[in-house]
Amino acid sequence: MLEHLTIPRGLVELAADLHLPDGFSATSDAEPLRAVVLSTPGSSVKEQIGANYAARLAARGIAALVFDPAHQGQSGGQPRDLEDPYRRGEDISFAIDALGTIPGIDPHRIGVLGICAGGSYAVHTARTDHRIKAVGTVVPTNMGTSFRGFQPDGPVAALDDMADARTEEARTGDLTRENWLPDTLEDAAAAGLTDIDTTQAITYYRTERGHHEKSTNRRLSRGDALLLGYDAFHLADQLMTQPLQVVLAGRVGNTGSYESGMRLWKLAPDPVDLMVIEGAGHYEMYDVPEYVDAAVDRLAGFYTDHL
Fold it and tell me: What is the value of pTM for the model shown?
């Protein structure tokens, strides 16, 4: 079952999909459902990776809410394409606000599932929003660490350049955007990006395999300065006391998710289960049934035990 929701979020609204077990009825005498809010990868929309996991969780008896972040997809917010890590975390809390008011959902048994960049936002939010009772992650990255590592001349030089660019934006009123990925495999090859992770990312996001028209493959340049100063795991060792599940791809590539996941596992006060799916690459964890089903089976058991 799938219900489309609109979630109030201050001055804007979030577009969300609530995946429910077949036969769910809010008016029945059945025990209220445990539920999970999904925090999705950067650049993705709710119909992509989040839907793959949410639908499978619902099939295993767990309500799952996936939403488009503010400024992206079908959600409101101007300017468009903003990737603000702090607002991404707030989005999760607004989603919990809404989920906890839905009849048939137990507001005291809500967890979070963060995938790729969404793992950053899930962990960062769970530190201080203890309505989240269990934290699951799949190929989680620490977006701050990742972005700082992407700068060829270092993050400080990048921030200096971004300061000049924002001054120019304020003068002209023209907002600049960056690609998350090359738009085509040909563009990637021309730029010398032929590694397997980049190739698989483009194959997922920019071809029929996983493409969605609302996923623009663009982010507002001014958001990059926020990402450079972000540390998703700051104080996680002290504040994120909820049970933690980490699912990682066994083929270690250049996304940093394996390293970030292992660091999170070591930092967490209550690490419950670490799963490494051998043979899987980071982007294969988005939609390859063999790998996604294995991850969701483990996650469903984790949420059943800890929600």
Answer: 0.96
